[in-house]
């Protein structure tokens, strides 16, 4: 898939690199270039001072395997193994192989050890991912025993997988009877990846992105779909898969990555002794997989693709156009860095050149999906365009594109905008996250995959210095890049996309044609084999797996107490203030919670829109462009969001809130609070054209989000049927809100809406219902004074003794909702009433949801029915939720949801299974928390140390009989709600009274 990168944000770890040939790691071991360590030779060492890390590049002597270690005093250790996988067909081979390697290996022969390790580990991240030209398998954990457990499972999976044909058929594709037990039922194409990619091809934006990549880099591996085209996937054979693995999942084609404070020597010893010591190098593999530079075109090219109509978007505004040009070789890290800055100057924010000329005239609804600078491929490229266009506007957009480029070359860029981008880099370098090591891996792999200098790519401060030097010596340097890469670049693609009325019918015809072609080749013996294979696969899926071969942590490996967070409580200007002293690396974090329960209903429905625009409309003393420049100069942005917060102690008690969020370098704290002061005292909602632009962006973004997050929308829709708090959430953020924004975006006279937003501002932009928090380095008095100055200058007197309010229960009628949208797969959800966080049944219900997710829903809905994902959870609002993602069989999925209680009662739950479910819960509870986020549970959710410790104890003490008890109490409840998002389905409506919403009618 084409992933548009925010290059500078991606390099969170990019700071000044100081070259050296000798270093001491935090483990106090001296390492030198040329030194041999456990079969590896140290090739390069580079300390990166600003983040207190040392990068070491090593090579395995015998196999030629490449190794990058980041030695840093961080407890969240990361490991990954990656292979360069460059497919030549769109049959999804690397993607299906990624799935199939995780279905059992020689040392761990049970089916799906990867998913089973999710419940036997304290990993805070486990995944496997396929990019257009590489596949990688990363995980993160703080526990050293867990680290080596996972390392052994991952490495055996990639180097010694079973690659059984049955696993290929389950994960990739297969011919199978619709009813496996009935040989007279129709034969269908099934498979997890097959259905996943059908879901991807239901998303117009995904289709557009993929085709843009295929067309601008057509002559090598990027010209095909590495994830797999559903019409081509059934051409892949099991023998092709095995041969590809044998050739390319070889140590000579591998790149190993480790990060954190565990011993490098132990990593290397484990890897060498277990997998590499007897492996001989084969340099020809890297030659075969090497991606050449794209041959530059002599003339520009055009392409047009069709897509499905989108009922969430006006019919006359469903076309897209993008113009892209090929830019630098990714291995030229200095130029790539500079071009990333150029891209931001052209695109990001209201002062950006293309934003002014393309977005503000409201020709379309937003930038097109392919817009941005892509530095994930061997040749980087830049694209810009619009979605939400009428076809008649295509020529106009192309003309604006050309005029904008010429204008940029003539006028150049505002130095303030350049400085603001460089400020954002400095701030991001100091901004500490809990997954730093993982983000560094993501930023490093694209360059590393093409044999670039990965250590050099981390040294962004050096690149900034070089960039500044070029600007000083050549004031028109950026204009020269625009001239070279945009104006006089023949490798230029103009791609358009428009809906076709019969797109879905044509897709279905192609699917049916493919199936008929497959069936026509089958003999009677083949058909009998298909029936037998289906039965055998079902038998394997139903078989009890012996997981004793898999390593596991025990509950004894977990800490017994919840970490406490230092807190200083103050009242400043009569406003409650929480101060959390943390090592923030000279960054101040400000948050505020403003209660909005006193607003009228018609105003509450517009709060999400208010939050989206309030910091982007400008103020009485400066327009939105001037204000945006100041925001970027001094902060990491001013964020405002709407939130409903559930009481941990009482069901149906909630806080309706607006949350303010910002951070800045300590030296800029006064400027940050001055910006908030201007929002509170001077915000204006008078610029109707600006508002229309922001409204179109919001409506477009929401419409595009449904296909990728359909399970979230389905769960919210379902819980809204049984929980009054979630009914509010659906209004503010579910499909109802998407439809509301669609309607508002089509209103000609927006003044009444603006008047209501102004009224919201008058009601809530004061300190009457506000509480604040600061996360700062201890004794940072400047931040406290800055907050005090802000609070002293805004209106209001604090008057909120209790910020929770009770909401009335809904009636107990069962409700089922079907939102008809033109997808080729479905998103299903079922909701049941549960309990609040502090209730004695919350912990066993939470454990039970983990248990049924891994032991029942995963094998039933994913493995048997072919959905890409499924699970169960318990929300803070007290709703039990079950869901499926990209699901071809909604009827069977709802049957599985309805059968949970009977299934649990038919099972003999073992102590080992119970403890696995508890471990899975503690993965979430004990996940690493960045300094900036410590204290959030207390500040936002009123979860003090006592409540969290009691919850921990309750989970530890859950017994098998507790799971049976809550299963019968809650999963047998006849008060439930269901939601289905997907194509029309008359079969499902025959069983239950469904409320059907056809979104084409909205």
Automatic annotation (TrEMBL):
<dbReference type="InterPro" id="IPR011765">
    <property type="entry name" value="Pept_M16_N"/>
</dbReference>
<keyword id="KW-0862">Zinc</keyword>
<dbReference type="Pfam" id="PF00675">
    <property type="entry name" value="Peptidase_M16"/>
</dbReference>
<dbReference type="GO" id="GO:0046872">
    <property type="term" value="F:metal ion binding"/>
</dbReference>
<dbReference type="Pfam" id="PF22516">
    <property type="entry name" value="PreP_C"/>
</dbReference>
<keyword id="KW-0809">Transit peptide</keyword>
<feature type="domain" description="Peptidase M16C associated">
    <location>
        <begin position="497"/>
        <end position="744"/>
    </location>
</feature>
<keyword id="KW-0496">Mitochondrion</keyword>
<keyword id="KW-0645">Protease</keyword>
<dbReference type="Pfam" id="PF05193">
    <property type="entry name" value="Peptidase_M16_C"/>
</dbReference>
<keyword id="KW-0482">Metalloprotease</keyword>
<dbReference type="InterPro" id="IPR011249">
    <property type="entry name" value="Metalloenz_LuxS/M16"/>
</dbReference>
<keyword id="KW-0378">Hydrolase</keyword>
<keyword id="KW-0479">Metal-binding</keyword>
<protein>
    <recommendedName>
        <fullName>Presequence protease, mitochondrial</fullName>
    </recommendedName>
</protein>
<comment type="similarity">
    <text>Belongs to the peptidase M16 family. PreP subfamily.</text>
</comment>
<dbReference type="GO" id="GO:0004222">
    <property type="term" value="F:metalloendopeptidase activity"/>
</dbReference>
<dbReference type="InterPro" id="IPR013578">
    <property type="entry name" value="Peptidase_M16C_assoc"/>
</dbReference>
<dbReference type="GO" id="GO:0016485">
    <property type="term" value="P:protein processing"/>
</dbReference>
<dbReference type="GO" id="GO:0005759">
    <property type="term" value="C:mitochondrial matrix"/>
</dbReference>
<dbReference type="InterPro" id="IPR007863">
    <property type="entry name" value="Peptidase_M16_C"/>
</dbReference>
<dbReference type="InterPro" id="IPR055130">
    <property type="entry name" value="PreP_C"/>
</dbReference>
<dbReference type="Pfam" id="PF08367">
    <property type="entry name" value="M16C_assoc"/>
</dbReference>
């Amino acid at each position: 898939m084409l992933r548009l990168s925010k290059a500078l944000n991606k390099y969170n770890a990019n700071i000044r690199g100081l070259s050296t040939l000798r270093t001491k790691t935090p483990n106090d071991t001296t390492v030198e270039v040329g030194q041999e360590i456990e079969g590896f030779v140290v090739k390069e060492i580079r300390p990166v001072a600003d983040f207190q890390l040392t990068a070491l590049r090593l090579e395995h002597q015998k196999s030629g395997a490449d190794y990058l270690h980041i030695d840093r005093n961080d407890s969240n250790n990361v490991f990954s193994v990656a292979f360069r996988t460059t497919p030549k067909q769109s049959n999804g081979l690397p993607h299906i192989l990624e799935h199939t390697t995780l279905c059992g290996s020689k040392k761990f022969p049970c089916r799906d050890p990867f998913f089973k390790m999710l419940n036997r580990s304290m990993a805070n991240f486990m995944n496997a991912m396929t990019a257009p030209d590489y596949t990688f398998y990363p995980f993160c954990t703080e526990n050293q025993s867990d680290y080596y457990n996972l390392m052994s499972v991952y490495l055996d999976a990639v180097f010694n997988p079973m690659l059984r044909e049955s696993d290929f058929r389950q994960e990739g594709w297969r011919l199978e009877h619709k009813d496996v037990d009935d040989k007279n039922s129709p034969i269908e194409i099934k498979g997890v990846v097959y259905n996943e990619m059908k879901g991807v091809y239901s998303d117009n934006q995904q289709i557009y992105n993929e085709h843009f990549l295929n067309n601008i880099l057509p002559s090598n591996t990027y010209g095909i779909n590495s994830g797999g085209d559903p019409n081509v996937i059934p051409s892949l054979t099991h023998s092709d898969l095995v041969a590809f693995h044998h050739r390319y999942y070889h140590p000579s084609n591998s790149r190993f990555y480790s990060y954190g404070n565990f011993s490098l020597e132990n990593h290397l010893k484990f890897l060498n002794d277990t997998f590499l010591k007897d492996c001989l190098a084969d340099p020809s593999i890297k030659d075969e997989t090497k991606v050449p530079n794209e041959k530059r075109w002599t003339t520009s090219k055009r392409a047009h693709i069709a897509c499905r109509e989108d009922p969430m978007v006006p019919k006359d505004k469903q076309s897209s156009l993008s113009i892209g040009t090929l830019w630098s070789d990714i291995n030229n890290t200095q130029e790539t860095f500079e071009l990333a800055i150029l891209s931001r100057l052209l695109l990001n924010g209201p002062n950006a050149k293309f934003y002014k000329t393309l977005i503000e005239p409201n020709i379309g609804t937003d930038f097109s999906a392919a817009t941005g600078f892509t530095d994930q491929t061997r040749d980087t490229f830049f694209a810009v365009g619009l979605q939400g266009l009428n076809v008649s506007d295509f020529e106009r957009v192309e003309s604006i594109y050309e005029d904008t480029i010429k204008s940029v070359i003539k006028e150049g860029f505002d130095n303030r905008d350049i400085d603001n981008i460089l400020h954002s880099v400095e701030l991001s370098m100091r901004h500490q996250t809990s997954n730093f090591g993982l983000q560094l891996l993501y930023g490093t792999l694209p360059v590393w995959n093409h044999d670039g200098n990965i250590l050099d790519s981390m040294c962004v401060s050096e690149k900034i210095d070089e960039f500044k030097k070029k600007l000083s010596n050549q004031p028109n340097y950026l204009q020269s890049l625009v001239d070279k890469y945009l104006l006089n670049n023949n490798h230029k693609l103009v791609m358009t996309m428009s809906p076709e009325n019969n797109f879905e019918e044509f897709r279905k015809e192609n699917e049916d044609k493919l199936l008929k072609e497959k069936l026509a080749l089958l003999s009677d013996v083949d058909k009998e084999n298909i029936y037998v294979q289906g039965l055998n696969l079902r038998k394997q899926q139903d078989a009890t797996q012996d997981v004793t071969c898999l390593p596991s942590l025990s509950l004894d490996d977990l800490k017994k107490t919840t970490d406490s967070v230092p807190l200083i409580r103050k009242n400043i200007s009569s406003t409650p203030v929480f101060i959390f002293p943390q090592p923030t690396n000279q960054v101040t974090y400000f948050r505020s919670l403003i209660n909005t329960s006193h607003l009228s209903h018609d105003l509450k429905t517009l709060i999400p829109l208010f939050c989206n625009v309030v910091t982007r409309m400008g103020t009485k003393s400066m327009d939105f462009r001037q204000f945006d420049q100041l925001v970027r100069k001094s902060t990491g942005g001013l964020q405002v969001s709407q939130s409903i917060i559930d009481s941990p102690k009482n069901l149906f008690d909630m806080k309706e809130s607006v949350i303010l969020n910002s951070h800045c370098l300590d030296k800029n704290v006064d400027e940050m609070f001055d910006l908030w002061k201007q929002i509170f005292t001077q915000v204006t909602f008078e610029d109707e054209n600006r508002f229309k632009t922001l409204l179109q962006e919001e409506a477009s973004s929401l419409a595009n989000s449904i296909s990728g997050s359909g399970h979230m929308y389905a769960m919210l829709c379902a819980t809204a049927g049984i929980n009054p708090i979630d009914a509010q959430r659906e209004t503010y953020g579910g499909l109802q809100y998407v439809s509301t924004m669609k309607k508002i975006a089509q209103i000609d006279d927006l003044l009444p809406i603006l008047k209501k937003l102004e009224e919201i501002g008058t009601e809530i932009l004061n300190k009457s219902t506000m509480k604040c928090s600061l996360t700062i380095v201890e004794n940072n008095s400047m931040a406290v004074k800055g907050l005090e100055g802000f609070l002293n200058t805004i209106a209001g007197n604090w008057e909120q003794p209790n910020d929770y309010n009770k909401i009335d229960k809904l009636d107990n009628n069962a409700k089922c909702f079907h939102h008809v949208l033109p997808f080729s797969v479905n998103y299903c959800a079922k909701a049941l009433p549960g309990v609040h966080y502090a209730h004695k049944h919350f912990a066993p219900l939470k454990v039970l949801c983990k248990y049924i997710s891994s032991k029942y829903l995963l094998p039933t809905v994913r493995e048997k029915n072919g959905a890409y994902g499924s699970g169960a959870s318990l929300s803070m609002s007290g709703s039990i939720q079950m869901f499926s993602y990209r699901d071809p069989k909604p009827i069977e999925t709802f049957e599985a949801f309805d059968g949970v209680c009977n299934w649990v009662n038919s099972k003999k739950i073992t102590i080992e299974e119970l403890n696995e479910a508890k471990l899975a819960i503690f993965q979430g509870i004990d996940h690493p928390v960045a300094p900036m986020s410590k204290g959030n549970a207390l500040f936002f959710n009123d979860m003090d140390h006592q409540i969290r410790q009691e919850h921990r104890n309750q989970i530890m003490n859950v017994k098998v009989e507790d799971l049976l008890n809550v299963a019968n109490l809650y999963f047998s409840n006849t008060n439930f709600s269901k939601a289905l998002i997907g194509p029309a389905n008359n079969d499902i409506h025959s069983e239950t009274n469904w409320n059907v919403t056809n979104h084409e009618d909205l």
